[in-house]
Design goal:
single chain; 172 residues; Aminopeptidase; alpha+beta; eight-stranded mixed beta sheet; globular; two-stranded antiparallel sheet
Length: 172
């Protein structure tokens, strides 16, 4: 379970994605910004959030901006926002060398758990229609495609709008 005060996974619930060590999920701190920006830029070369937007997300939603740390290095992050009874996954990315180990799923689950803890009823996100890996992850987490946003991205690519109901849902 996520410890809101500490911003880390409660003892005994850290997950180990591989032999390199355990991944700890904790709240983002300003000292993480440089590493997060590098992961963001490498993950989204066409339309990465600039450092100023990442800083704004942290300022506006400090409890909804989480990082995954392994062996002292930031290997991924998720940034969320809240509006009324709905949460949104604004950005999620895992360092290229750490992908395929469940870190993205772990981050998404922790943010969804946070959304549920504060009483939100739904979560939405946009994902590039050609990003099969991300779409598969979101579907495994219970998201469904509810629409398409034409020319959503800077290069004119479309996005799927995906949604998940949070009522009665828990993170294992």
């Amino acid at each position: 379970m996520f410890d809101q005060k500490q911003g880390t996974i409660a003892q005994g619930s850290a997950e180990s994605p591989g032999p390199e060590g355990q991944v700890i999920v904790r709240r983002f701190t300003p000292s993480d910004l440089k590493q997060i920006t590098l992961i963001e830029d490498a993950s989204f070369p066409v339309d990465a959030f600039p450092e100023s937007e990442l800083r704004r997300l942290h300022s506006a939603y400090p409890h909804e901006f989480l990082v995954a740390e392994m062996s002292g290095n930031i290997v991924g992050y998720v940034a969320g926002s809240v509006m009324a009874d709905r949460g949104e996954i604004e950005s999620i990315a895992v360092d290229q060398g750490s992908r395929g180990r469940g870190i993205g799923a772990m981050l998404a689950k922790r943010l969804l758990e946070r959304f549920q803890q504060i009483g939100l009823r739904k979560c939405i996100l946009e994902v590039r229609t050609t990003n099969a890996v991300a779409i598969d992850l979101y579907e495994r987490l219970g998201f469904h495609i509810v629409g398409t946003r034409p020319a959503y991205y800077a290069n004119g690519s479309d996005a799927f709008l995906m949604e998940k109901t949070l009522d009665g849902w828990g993170c294992d």
